[in-house]
Amino acid sequence: MNKKIKNFALFLLAAIVVATTASCKFFSPPKEVKTFRTLPAEIAVPAGEVPVVPLGKITFPEYLYNQQIAERGSDGKITLDERNLWAEPLSSTIKRTLPLQIAAHVKKNSPDAKIKDSVSIAIMRLDGVLGGDVEIVAYVEIFREGKSGNEHAFYFQQSIPTQGSGIDAYINAVARAVDALAAATAEKISD
């Protein structure tokens, strides 16, 4: 009799584990992976024609190393969205795409430009509020070839309206904020 109770208890335990696991898959919210277009269509140039911008050190706030999309609450605290994720951490995307964006803007501003400067960027803030604005704050240093010092350093701060209330509008605003930083950096390089 004791063996039958043990077997029944094991069967019941296994059934509970299977039911719990199945319900978790059924009821957990789906995760959506988001990306943003790295080069706006109006500045895109053929791949072979984009000059290289040497991008040195680039730093980010800790929350941009996460894959979750960061949103600033009304209390000023950052929350990370567990349902909407970047395809990769935003820090990785920016490190890979920002040199291309800067170079494309330089090429647009002066087609014959040869880039001899290197750039270092410290992004201090890149977040926003759904349905509100995305804010980007960065410190940019441009190092001229053959010159010492960073007389071409500047702070960049801009608020970009999301132009909508959904997560897609927020993502487009993040992309426009990064592109605005690239355009401002390219303008300083072209000086």
Can you walk through the features of this model?
- It contains three helices and seven strands, in the order H-E-E-E-E-H-E-E-E-H.
- It starts with a helix and ends with a helix.
- The strands form two sheets. Strands 2-5-6-7 form a four-stranded mixed β-sheet, covered by helices on one side. The protein has a three-stranded mixed β-sheet with strand order 1-4-3, covered by helices on one side.
- By secondary structure, it is α/β, with parallel strands linked by helices.
For the terminal residues, how far apart are their CA atoms?
90 Å
Give the SSE string: HEEEEHEEEH
Annotation, overall tally of beta strands? 7
Helix content: 25-40%
Determine the strand fraction and express it as a percent band. Answer: 25-35%
How many helix segments? Answer: 3
How many strands, which pairing sense, and closed or not: the largest β-sheet?
4 strands, mixed
Return the structural class. alpha/beta
Name the shape in a single word. Answer: elongated
Radius of gyration from the alpha-carbon trace, in angstroms: 24 Å
Give the strand order of the largest sheet, numbering strands 1, 2, ... along the chain. Answer: 2-5-6-7
Runs with pLDDT <50, length 5+? none
Mean of pLDDT: 78
